[in-house]
Amino acid sequence: MHRVLIIDDSSATRAYVRAALEEMSDMQVSEAASGFDALRILPRERFDLLLVDINMPNINGLELISFIRRSDTHRHTPLLIISTEASERDRSRAMALGANGYLAKPFTADALAEAVRLIKKPVEGA
Amino acid sequence: MPQGKDGERAKEEFLAEAQELIESLSRDLLLLDAGIKQGQRSPETVNDLFRGVHTLKGLSGMFGFERLGRMSHVLEDLLEDLRLGRVDLTQQVLDVLFEGVDSFQRLLGDPAEQSGIDVETFTARVRSLARARVQERNIFEDYELDPSMLGVLTEYEEHRLRTNLEQGLTVFRLRVRLALDVIDTALDGLKERVKTIAEIITYLPSMDGGGGDSIEIEMLLASKKSETELRTALNRPDAALSAIPKRQRAAAPREPSKAHAPEPSTPLTPQSPPSAEIQAKPEVTPVKRSAADGDVSLRSITSVVRVDIRKLDHLMNVVGELGTVRAALARLVEKLRNGAAPAWSSEAHRIHRAFQRHLAEVQDGVLDIRMVPLSQLFDKVAVIVRQVAREQQKEVRLTITGAETEVDKLIAEELADPMMHIVRNAIDHGVEQPADREKRGKPPAGSLHVSAHQKGNHVVIELEDDGRGIDSNLIREVAIRKGVLTEQAASDLARDELLNVIFMPGFSTAREITDISGRGVGMDVVKTNITRLGGAVDIESEFGRGTKITITLPITLAIISALLFEVRDRLFAIPLAVVQEALRMPASAVRTVDGREVITLRGTTLPLCRLADLFGLGPLAPGSTEHYVIVVSVGNRRLGMCVERLSGQQDIVIKGLGRSLANTQGISGATDLGDQHLVLVLDAASIIEEVLLSRGGALIGAAS
Predict the structure, then answer these.
(1) pLDDT-derived band at B548, boundaries 50, 70, 90
(2) Are A70 and B207 inside 8 Å of each other by CB?
(3) In this complex, is the C-beta atom of A90 within 8 Å of any C-beta atom belonging to chain B?
(4) Is B19:B26 a contact under the CB 8 Å cutoff?
(5) What interface predicted TM-score (ipTM) does this complex get?
(6) Is pLDDT of B294 > 70?
(7) Which residue range(s) make up the domain with B220?
(8) Do residue A57 and residue B51 have CB atoms under 8 angstroms apart?
(9) CATH number of B415's domain
């Protein structure tokens, strides 16, 4: 079972990502509606993949990534950011802070599946 | 787009979220507009707009709303430039934003995308807006800023930090420890307090001493206030506050301190030449919805559940069925009481009472879920007012009261079109040009007051303008010319009755009326829509002084209390909400005036209607009489309906008559009383209409 946490303040995006992931086999999807939600969930649960939106109110995605990469629990968990092609600067910052890749909104279900597949491999090999 | 049930759910989620986003976008635009008029700049609102459009763009792409995606992309770029200070916020820019958000609404409602929105032309317009060049001096070098902190700022946050420093504000770090469980509410409370005196640039979760049930949050604030003032305002002894100091070595060689530099050239002055666009400046008073100062809101976003209105409809139907079960139970209890087992009877009575009480609670609960504040609708009104005023180069001061009044979601939605129509007419044809107004001794800005309040089971919405009003003589003249009224009928009508002629079909399409009298096209449609909701619309106008339109609506359509009565041994129901009173028929007091039966009720004349004649139910059975008069009123019109017997009150669920009978005059539906006894529910508004305007006559196609 592959455990994924989506951190995005848009519930429609979360629903979309969940629907797309659940079409793949053995995916268990959790949702966090804000950076705070994520801070609450992350120390208590283990995940195999984190999907992080950059543009969130209060704690933004970059701050969250920086936090996650310094935390005990998810320092090495694969992390994809969800952003748009518009904010190239924010995207490269995210990569510098330790994100493993990005998905540009709007993305298709296939693109999401592909990105997840790519990132799954090293995890399973580890 | 993912398929299957999850995909469907995601799509529904999208439609709901997109709708909410669009609504909050237009609210933000109104705030921005109001802010500009008071010379305020609100970077946070611009950023909220950006985030909203950004989310909408992403979602549209994923859910296959291609044109909505492109439109929002164009607007996102503009808002990105705005929030990063590359474009100045002028009225012209604001117009484009309003137009864009309006097109979002249309594209969302019309995925077939035939709504005639020209994305290319719009894009060209947006691109033509002047972009300012930003100079990129690295002001961060002057301050003791932690590079690791700078590293996690988004481009926008970095821009806000730079702008604030350039304007000579002090930047503070505020560290506060918050319990994770309640962090959203705790932070909201803190935010409310901070926002009045400082701009919040970002929040950083701090690692120091992290873990456990609480977390330390560091906020970056920019403020004109001193550290002491800020500390007092915050009133949190546990919070650590420190100003970010200037670097010592960097200060000397550089140009003189910017701390006393004048405010940067204000971008609030329109850049374009002072053309017509500036004249129209509707002043909008947006509805204030934030919690009281310092009051911690306990409602976080996550406690709200979105529910499909159809699910509530279903639940409401079930509650309705339960109501009929209850009625049947009540009859059974009644029978038991007369039976031979008194112990069982009182037991049954007790159970029935408990059932009734809980059912009433469930009913209220479901109804309550369906209620939405009118503020959603009034926000749309504010957008239209601004738009029409600018189109017409008029000035309109819009004031809104009672926006917190709640109505059934369905009613709020159905009300949108009629309201838009009335508002548009009021500005189009009611409010005069500023110069004309001044000639008449009125202030140059017209006023439009929209208010709502609850009155019993009804909501009353009033729209009052101080425009040119309606010339009733002209209405009389045109109504005769158009053949809407005979000359005799027209001269018989009193002034206020004459005003109601504008709601008659065939009249309001008259073009010359539109232009001269001050009321526009399609008022008959407005009336039809409101009547369909079980409501009424009334008009008062004083020529030269203004017009007031009053809409009266039931609070909900779902479950209503009804009065049951008998005519010619048939049982009928009428919503209790329209019933003023029921009285014994004072047979001797019936007079005939102008061929119509009337009685005098407490000094006023009440027209009567013999329902049996109206519905063609035949003559009275020998020995029976029409004992009662039920006085119904809709809006400001009253009618006495003559019936033989009153048969009590009951909560009923009105069901439609089916497509083939849907347009039956005088009947709004049927209801099941619980013992398979179907009863027709009368539509008071259309009966009053029929009787008072056509002066009697039988309804066509009614029960024989």
Answers:
(1) very high
(2) yes
(3) yes
(4) no
(5) 0.77
(6) no
(7) 139-259
(8) yes
(9) 3.30.565.10
Domain boundary among B209, B239, B259: B259
Segment B165-219, tens digit of pLDDT: 888 889 998 888 888 778 878 888 888 888 888 888 888 887 654 556 788 888 8
Give B183-187's long-range contacts (Cβ < 8 A, gap of 24+).
B183/A36, B183/A39, B183/A40, B183/B215, B183/B217, B184/A34, B184/A36, B184/B300, B184/B301, B184/B302, B185/B296, B185/B297, B185/B298, B185/B300, B186/B296, B187/A36, B187/A58, B187/B217
Neighbours of B379 (CB within 10 A): 20
Instruction: Read off the pLDDT of residues A10-48 as tens digits, 9 standing for 90 and up.
Output: 888 898 888 888 888 788 899 999 888 888 888 888 899
- Which of B239, B259, B279 corresponds to the end of one domain? B259
**Which amino acid is it at A56?**
M
Total of domains in chain B = 4
Q: What is the pLDDT of residues A71-110, one digit of tens each?
A: 888 888 899 988 765 567 788 888 888 888 888 877 888 8
Which residues on neighbouring strands pair with residue A80, listed in sequence order?
A51, A101
Cβ of residue A53 closer than 8 Å to a chain B Cβ: no
- How many domains is chain A built from? 1
**C-beta atoms of B204 and A90 within 8 A:** no
Of B151, B205, B301, the CB nearest to A93: B151
Q: Residue B628 belongs to what H/E stretch?
A: strand B628-634
Query: Is B512 among the domain residues?
Result: no
- Facing A86 at nearest CB: one of B7, B76, B181: B76
Which CATH number belongs to the domain containing residue B564 in this structure?
A: 2.40.50.180
Closest CA to B396 of B450, B470, B441, B462: B450
